[in-house]
Description:
The chain is 78% helix and 0% strand. It is mostly helical and 83 residues long. It has one domain (18-81). Keywords: Membrane, Transmembrane, Transmembrane helix. The chain crosses the membrane at residues 12-34, 46-65.
Amino acid sequence: MVHTVAFHPLPALWSLLGIGGALACLASLEIAVTIKHLDWRQMIRIILIAYWFAFVVGVVQFLSIKMDITFVHDWFSHLMSRE
């Protein structure tokens, strides 16, 4: 029985770039906390606020779709569209 595996270069490159970006993010956090002595509690507070804001936006979008509020749905569609 023969098994074959396909290798797709572009998705593999994107995966490696994603891993590199995650490692760069961890390195920047290490520099910020250990070398620059920034307060990690403030960083966590900002991240939590950003995630709660994103959650609220998602709930508003969901409710505008379910309740068929076209003004809100159209506004978010225009806001989130890419040129």
